[in-house]
UniProtKB/TrEMBL annotation:
It comes from Pedobacter heparinus (strain ATCC 13125 / DSM 2366 / CIP 104194 / JCM 7457 / NBRC 12017 / NCIMB 9290 / NRRL B-14731 / HIM 762-3). Pfam families: PDDEXK_2 (PF12784). PANTHER family: PD-(D_E)XK NUCLEASE FAMILY TRANSPOSASE. This is Rpn family recombination-promoting nuclease/putative transposase.
Length: 318
């Protein structure tokens, strides 16, 4: 199984990758291997069809360039993880985002706008008449959720619609965000093909062998490409380097979050002591516990840091 840690790790404490039967789907090397190669086309086509749930049916895709420079040297460009087009000309940007960033939504909009503006012909546009093809961004969010996202939902399907009537204003652009933190189904709760896909991707490194309930040609290809033993020595080096970068980045983030939480709690407790208010101390501890729960800290560590009871912390999860 993929190695897990129960506490935040100091950034200087680095872990070495341990071989697993199947590779981690959400590191750069693996994501491109599983979704951006000729061999992986059946995987991506199947996943896209399950996400669109009949609104679109994709039979073939062609990969395109994933780098879109600005029209002038001083203008920022965009680099997509995966970019492809189906036989009808619809454009798909497929991304994996492992950690939150301040302007994530803005980046998603910028990426889509680049794929739209790229369609404009260079030169005389009179005959073009702004005839745009569909553009969709699909992003896997591994370790964070969208703000105000309901925890009961793990797929956010966003479109341009009238705020009051719900009537779609423009149906040729859309965003699908797959929030992996919210996908908590067990192997006996996979009622749809999409559930099976998300479960397979989330738990890939935990499988010692391919489960019988993940069957079919698309899963054949997924587990073939994800088999660590099938990688060449050069591919293993690339994968292990990609995995270490992911862990190192997470270690730094976890350490920063933990120190911030500790400092915030200590400041809150000190303020409470100065004010002589037990209620103020308890309120600050609740705030810190909620933030730690969002960041998936173990209950035992939250108890140690906040001095709240296990029952109090569990009640905050409801």
């Amino acid at each position: 199984m993929q190695e897990q840690t129960s506490t935040a790790t100091h950034p200087k404490q680095k872990r070495e990758p341990k071989p697993t039967t199947f590779i981690d789907a959400f590191v750069d090397f693996s994501f491109k291997r599983l979704f951006a190669t000729e061999e992986s086309k059946p995987i991506l086509i199947g996943l896209l069809n399950h996400l669109f749930k009949g609104r679109k049916y994709i039979t073939e895709i062609e990969y395109g360039k994933n780098e879109f420079p600005g029209e002038i040297a001083q203008e920022g460009g965009a680099v997509f993880d995966v970019y492809c087009t189906d036989v009808n000309g619809s454009k798909f940007i497929i991304e994996v985002q492992r950690g939150n960033q301040e302007y994530f939504k803005e980046r998603a909009l910028f990426y889509v706008s680049r794929a739209i503006s790229e369609q404009a012909p260079k030169g005389d546009r009179k005959g073009w008449a702004y005839k745009l093809t569909e553009v969709y961004l699909l992003a896997f969010l591994e370790d964070f959720n969208l703000p105000d996202s309901p925890k009961s939902e793990y797929v956010q399907d966003i479109c341009l619609a009238n705020r009051h009537t719900g009537i779609i204003f423009y149906d040729k652009v859309g965003f699908i965000f797959i929030e992996m933190l919210n996908f908590v189904k067990g192997s006996d709760e996979l009622y749809t093909e999409l559930d099976k896909w998300l479960y397979a991707l989330k738990h890939l490194t935990e499988f010692k062998q391919r489960p019988e309930y993940l069957s079919g040609p698309e899963f054949d290809q997924l587990f073939t490409l994800a088999n660590y033993a099938s990688l060449t020595p050069e591919e293993r080096d690339m994968y292990n380097s990609s995995l270490k970068r992911k862990w190192d980045n997470k270690n730094v983030l976890d350490y920063a979050v933990k120190k911030s939480l500790e400092q915030g709690l200590e400041q809150g407790l000190e303020q409470g002591r100065e004010q002589g208010r037990e209620q103020g101390i308890h309120k600050k501890a609740i705030e810190i516990a909620l933030e730690m729960l969002v960041n998936k800290y173990p209950i035992e560590e939250i108890i140690k840091l906040t001095k709240l009871s296990k029952e109090e912390i569990q009640s905050l999860q409801k």
